[in-house]
Design brief:
This protein is mainly beta. The chain has four helices and 28 strands. It has one domain: Pectate Lyase C-like, CATH 2.160.20. The structure holds 2-acetamido-2-deoxy-beta-D-glucopyranose (4 copies). InterPro entries: Glyco_hydro_28 (IPR000743), PbH1 (IPR006626), Pectin_lyas_fold (IPR012334), Pectin_lyase_fold/virulence (IPR011050).
């Protein structure tokens, strides 16, 4: 009898399919009880369930020391975060360079309007860095090797380093994700994509201290649309060529994005000298810039902090790249800068309908080109490639 009752209850629960971490696993929204164990217990149960299951973190503010939520799971799994989840503020409280990590999960959805708060203020000041290992590699929300996943209506703020880091993902959509960190927070990229395929980033708002979106090697078939960025360093492919054996970057479309007060608009950056690589089939289209320092940029002399041979040519080959309908205002006169490699000149580059104005001293607006002969169509303001690149260009970050 009791076995039958148990089976009956289990099946009712599986049908309902929702596991509340507070009601069922002892989580407390008191900023004192660590959410880690309740969340991991709920994950373990959900992941083992043969029926689709949703874990719910209700409204309230929680402290979470660290959690790695790992698959594979038996059925689709969802995490509905309604609450505000805070990381430990002190970087020394971390034993590993990660905070919330989703690993090897298929058919996964993260949603719910909640917040992941990295409490990065102390880390930005690099306080106590001499005493622990993770100052240059501090915790982030990691999405590692996820397949068929959706991240929707989630805020990630004040991460200690990159906000969202994707590695090895396939078919993943990030929609209505909000990233927010101070303009002067170091190395706080909004969303970093590496070695992933079929990534969509849709209607997402990013304010941060580094790249809003950065795209590393091995990224293929990405669609980025409706993103607002600023403050920040813009939407960047790269940097590439710093390491050996980097995989090609190909098939990236960035469209209908708005950048405001950023140091770059859309750019591709590869290190001066260093290792080979390829970047192809990249299309930037319908981009609005307001007060952006360098709106259109190919920088194959990327060499921040003088950590390379500035005179060496990049060994990364760029081809089949278009910049179409990019308009607005710049904060510096160099509004278009295509600095390609002398060893591997850029091939099949297109500039179509560029209309960017600059009002300030040191004007008028300039379009600088080197080792590239772009195909030019439509309106060009300023005139395309009107100015040679100076011998010692100012390094960008
Ligand atoms: C991609 O993932 C979504 C879930 O986010 C799923 O609905 C869709 O079927 C997947 N597409 C393919 C081709 O597997
Ligand atoms: C332009 O952006 C910079 C930050 O990059 C900001 O300091 C400045 O006030 C902005 N100017 C206008 C007119 O918005
Ligand atoms: C851009 O900077 C100006 C001046 O600092 C500020 O008024 C404006 O709100 C900023 N815009 C955004 C979207 O950050
Ligand atoms: C660039 O485009 C041309 C013509 O569209 C195509 O033949 C070539 O394979 C492409 N190159 C790369 C590296 O994708």
């Amino acid at each position: 009898m009791s076995i039958i009752l148990n089976l009956f209850l289990t099946s009712v629960e599986a049908q309902a399919g929702a596991l509340d971490v507070v009601a069922k696993f002892g989580a407390k929204a008191d900023l004192n009880t660590d959410l880690s164990k309740p969340l991991l217990d709920a994950w373990k149960e959900a992941c083992a369930s043969p029926a689709p299951t949703t874990i719910v973190i209700p409204k309230g503010t929680y402290l979470l020391s660290q959690a790695t939520l790992e698959g594979p799971c038996k059925a689709p799994i969802e995490l509905e975060v309604q609450g505000n989840i805070k990381a430990p503020a002190d970087p020394k409280d971390f034993k590993e360079p990660k905070w919330v990590s989703f690993l090897h999960v298929e058919n996964f959805k993260l949603f719910g309007g909640g917040v992941f708060d990295g409490q990065g203020t102390a880390a930005y000041k690099r306080e106590g860095c001499e005493k622990h290992d993770f100052c240059s590699n501090l915790p982030i929300v990691r999405l590692d090797f996820l397949t068929n996943a959706m991240i929707q209506d989630i805020t990630i703020r004040d991460s200690k380093q990159f906000h969202v880091n994707l590695l090895g993902c396939k078919n993943i959509t990030l929609e209505h994700v909000t990233v927010s960190a101070p303009e002067d927070s170091p190395n706080t990229d909004g969303i970093h994509i590496g070695r992933s395929e079929g990534v969509k980033i849709i209607n997402t708002d990013i304010k941060t201290g580094d790249d809003c979106i950065s795209i590393g090697d091995g990224s293929k078939n990405l669609d980025i649309t409706g993103v607002t960025c600023g403050p920040g360093h813009g939407i960047s492919i790269g940097s590439l060529g710093k390491f050996a054996n980097e995989e090609p970057v190909e098939g990236i479309k960035v469209s209908k994005c708005t950048l405001t007060n950023t140091s770059n608009g859309v750019r591709i950056k590869t290190w001066a000298g260093e290792f080979p690589g390829t970047v192809s089939d990249i299309h930037f289209e319908d981009i609005t810039v307001t007060n952006v320092s360098c709106p259109v940029l190919i920088d194959q002399k990327y060499c921040p902090w003088n950590k390379c041979k500035m005179n060496a040519e990049s060994n990364v080959k760029l081809s089949n790249i278009s910049f179409k309908n990019i308009h607005g205002t710049a904060a510096l006169p160099e509004v278009v800068k295509l600095v390609c490699s002398g060893t591997f000149p850029c091939e099949n580059i297109e500039l179509a309908d560029i209309d960017i104005t600059f009002n300030g001293p040191n004007g008028p607006a300039k379009s600088e080109c080197k080792n590239v002969k772009p195909k030019i169509t439509g309106k060009q303001n300023p005139a395309a490639c009107s100015t040679p690149v100076p011998e010692n260009p100012t390094p960008t970050v």
